[in-house]
TrEMBL record:
Lineage, highest ranks first: Bacteria, Bacillati, Actinomycetota, Actinomycetes, Streptosporangiales
Domain named HTH lacI-type: residues: 1-55
Entries under PROSITE patterns matching the protein: HTH_LACI_2 (PS50932)
InterPro entries attached to this UniProt entry: HTH_LacI, LacI/GalR-like_sensor, Lambda_DNA-bd_dom_sf, Peripla_BP_I
Gene3D superfamilies reported in the protein's UniProt record: 3.40.50.2300, lambda repressor-like DNA-binding domains
Matching PANTHER family: HTH-TYPE TRANSCRIPTIONAL REPRESSOR PURR-RELATED (PTHR30146:SF148), LACI-RELATED TRANSCRIPTIONAL REPRESSOR (PTHR30146)
Classification via SUPFAM superfamilies: lambda repressor-like DNA-binding domains (SSF47413), Periplasmic binding protein-like I (SSF53822)
Keyword DNA-binding (UniProt): yes
UniProt entry keywords in alphabetical sequence: DNA-binding, Repressor, Transcription, Transcription regulation
Pfam family, one: Peripla_BP_3
Protein name as annotated: LacI family transcriptional regulator
Gene source species: Nonomuraea composti
C-alpha cells in the first residue's frame, strides 16, 4: 500500500494524508478521521521516502561546518543528529576545511536538502543573502541575528565578565587571552571584549591561529618563556586551555601556583584535567538539538518567521584558577 492509495480511499490529497500522519499542519477533524480510517483499513505503514516524495521534500537536512575535528563540533552535531533522527530526517554534513569552490558545494547541497544548519560565518555573506532570497530554510549557530534565518547562540559577554572578575578577586595583576585572530563578530570576540571590559589594560590578546590543543600549547610556551610572564591565562576554549596546561607542565610551572589557566566550553576533558580546568559551561549539545527542532519547524510550516535565541552559560570554578574558598567546585 502507498500513500497515494490512502489518499484515494479517503478522498483527499496526498499532502493532506502526509500532514495528518506527521502532524505538521492544520487538518480538519472530519478529514483527519477519514484519513486515519483509510490507513487502518489498508493497513498502511508510511515510508520516509514515500512521505518525502508526496510532500516534494528530501527528508534530509544539510549541516555546514568549518571543521569536524574537536569536541565542540562533535557535541553540537550529536545534539542535532539525535533530534533529526527522532524527526525522521537524515543529515548530510559538509565540512569546508581545505575545500575549494565552497560556494558551489553549498549551493549543490542546498538543492539536495530541505534546509540547512550553518555554523557562524562559514558561508560568505553574499551567498547567505542569495540563499535567503531563494527561500532556503536556514538556521545559524553561533552568529548574530540576520534577516530571513533563525539564529541560535550561547551567551558570551556576561560569563566572560564574571570569569574575569573571579580571576581579579584572586589578586592577579597580569593576564593574557589566548585566541584565534580577533577580527570577526564571533563568540570568541565577545569573550575577549567581555574579559577586557573588566581587566582593561592588564590583559593582552595573543593570536593562536586556530582553536586546538597544539596551537594553545605553542602560544602558551612562547608566552610562559617570556620575561613578562602573565599570572593568569584566559583561553578562548578548552582545547587551547589544555594546550596551555601542557606547556606549563613542560616548563616546570605549577598551575595555579605559578600561573592560572581558564578555558571555555566545559568539554569532558576539562573536568578530568590535572588540575581540573576552570571554564565556562555552554550547552553545546542543546545548541544542536534546538537547531534541529527550529529547522524542522521552518521546513514543516509550523512557523514562517525567523526566531533568534541565546542560551545561558555559566562559569565553572575548578582548581586551575587558584584557591577560592567561597566558590563551589564541580
Amino acid at each position: 500500500m502507498t500513500i497515494y492509495e490512502v489518499a484515494r480511499r479517503a478522498g483527499v490529497s496526498i499532502a493532506t494524508v502526509s500532514r495528518t500522519l506527521r502532524g505538521t499542519g492544520p487538518v480538519a477533524a472530519k478529514t483527519r478521521e477519514k484519513v486515519l480510517k483509510a490507513v487502518e483499513e489498508l493497513n498502511f505503514t508510511p515510508s520516509r521516502l514515500g512521505v518525502s516524495l508526496a510532500e516534494g521534500r528530501h527528508a534530509a537536512n544539510g549541516v555546514v561546518f568549518p571543521d569536524l575535528a574537536g569536541p565542540y563540533y562533535a557535541e553540537v552535531l550529536l545534539g542535532y543528529e539525535e533530534v533529526a533522527s527522532e524527526l525522521g530526517r537524515s543529515v548530510i554534513i559538509l565540512s569546508t576545511k581545505g575545500r575549494t569552490r565552497v560556494g558551489d558545494l553549498i549551493k549543490d547541497l542546498a538543492g539536495r536538502v530541505d534546509g540547512m544548519l550553518i555554523f557562524g560565518h562559514t558561508v560568505p555573506e553574499p551567498l547567505v543573502a542569495e540563499l535567503v532570497r531563494l527561500g532556503v530554510r536556514l538556521v545559524f549557530v553561533s552568529r548574530d541575528p540576520l534577516p530571513g534565518a533563525d539564529t541560535l547562540r550561547s551567551e558570551n559577554t556576561a560569563s566572560a565578565r564574571a570569569l574575569a572578575a573571579h580571576l581579579a578577586d584572586h589578586g592577579y595583576e597580569r593576564f593574557a587571552f589566548l585566541g584565534a585572530p580577533l577580527t570577526s563578530h564571533d563568540d570568541v570576540d565577545e569573550r575577549w571584549r567581555g574579559v577586557r571590559s573588566v581587566l582593561g589594560g592588564a590583559i593582552e590578546a595573543v593570536d593562536t591561529g586556530h582553536y586546538t590543543v597544539e596551537c594553545g600549547h605553542e602560544a602558551a610556551t612562547k608566552l610562559l618563556k617570556g620575561r613578562d610572564r602573565p599570572r593568569a591565562i584566559v583561553c578562548s576554549d578548552d582545547e587551547v586551555a589544555l594546550g596551555a596546561l601542557l606547556a606549563a607542565e613542560e616548563l616546570g610551572l605549577d598551575v595555579p601556583g605559578d600561573v592560572a589557566v581558564t578555558g571555555w566550553d566545559d568539554i569532558m576533558a576539562a573536568r578530568h584535567a590535572r588540575p581540573a580546568l576552570t571554564t565556562v559551561r555552554q550547552p553545546m549539545r542543546e545548541l544542536g538539538a534546538r537547531a534541529a527542532r527550529a529547522l524542522d519547524e521552518l521546513i514543516t510550516g509550523v512557523r514562517d518567521t525567523p526566531s533568534h535565541h541565546t542560551l545561558a552559560t555559566a562559569p565553572v570554578i575548578r582548581a586551575s584558577c587558584g584557591h577560592h574558598p567561597q566558590e563551589v567546585r564541580t
